[in-house]
What does this fold into?
Amino acid sequence: MKFRQILTKVIVVTAFLAIAFFVYSIIPRVGNTDAEYGRELKKNDLLPSKFQDEVRGFIRDTANRMQNVMIAYKGKIIFEEGDTKKLINCHSARKSVMSILIGIAEDKGMLNLDETIESIGIDESQTPLTKKEKSATIRDLLMCTSGIFLKAEAEHDWADDIRPKRGRYKPGEYFFYNNWDFNILGVILERKTKMSIGEFMEKYLAIPLEMQDFSMSNIVYNSPWPVPNKTDSDYPVFWMYLSTRDFTKIGVLITQNGIWNNKQVVSKKWINESMYPYSKLDGYNDLYNPYEAFAYSWWVENDTKTIWADGYGGQFLCIDTTNNIVAVQRNFTGNSLLSSGLFLIDKNRDNNPKSDLIHVYKRILNEIEK
It folds into this structure.
C-alpha cells in the first residue's frame, strides 16, 4: 500500500512538472500590442490581381523559404503575402536598425561617431582591452573595423575559423564581421542617451513611423534560444522583434530620405553617410557573397544597386532608392522555448537564400516598368 502511495505521488509530481514545463515552453517572449500611435501604410492597387496571384504562387512554391513578404512602391504597399503582423526576431538585421538609431542620436547631438570606446568607459573584465583596442571609435564599430576580435554572443560558427589574432590590426584598418562590435553599439546607445534601446527606439523611431506592432518589450537581451550562447564578454546581445509591416516602414523611411509625415526622423546626411560602401568585400566572397560592400551596418549589392539588412533565417530588407521600392521577407524562427526549439531542429532552417526575394523584387519591378 505504501509503495502504491509513493508511486502515485511520483506520477502526480512528474505529471505536474511536465505540464508546468509545457506551459512555460509555449509562453511567448514577446507579444503583439496594438500601438496607440500605429497607422497602416496606404495601399496601391498598381499590380493586376492575376499578376499578384502568380507571384504568390512562386512564394508558396518555395515552401518555408519565404513566409511573409511585403513590397512597397513610392511609400505605398503594392504587394503583401503571409502574416505581416507577426512579431519575428530580426536576428542580424537588427544591426541595420541600430545604425538608424545611432544616426538619430548623432543628429540630436547625443553622441559623436569619433568618440572612442575608452572615453565611453567600455572595457572587458575577463579579457581586458588593450590601449590600441580602446582607441576604436563608434564609427569603427558601425563599419565592423574596430580591430577588436573577441568572441561575442550570437555570432556565426565560422567566426572562430577566420578570427584574426588580437592586436594584428589597428582600429579602422580591417573589416571583420564580429558581433562584439554590434553588441557594444547597443551599450553605447544606452549610455549616451540615458535610455534603454526600447525606450529610445519607441520615442524616436516607432512613434514617428507610426509602427503598428512595436513596444519597448520587443527588445530582448541575452539569448532568446533554448540554450544560452555564453561568452566571456561582459556585454550581452540584444534582439529586436519586429513585424513585417513595421520593418517595411523602416525601408520606406530610407527611400524618403529620412522624412515621415513631413518630419525629418533621421537626417538625409546620415542616410547618405551610413549607406556608403566603405568596406569592399572582394576577399570575403565565400562568406558574404553576393554582397560587394559593407556600410554602417548595412550590406551593399552592386548588381541591383540595392542596400540590404540581412538576418539569419531569412530576414531580409531590400531597399532600392533608385526605383523607390522596398522589398521585405520575414521567416518565423520562434517566439517561445517550444517554437524556437522546433525551428532549431528543422533541417531546412538554413535554406533561406536572398535570391528568392530578388526574384520577386525584379519581377515586380519589371511589371511596374511596363
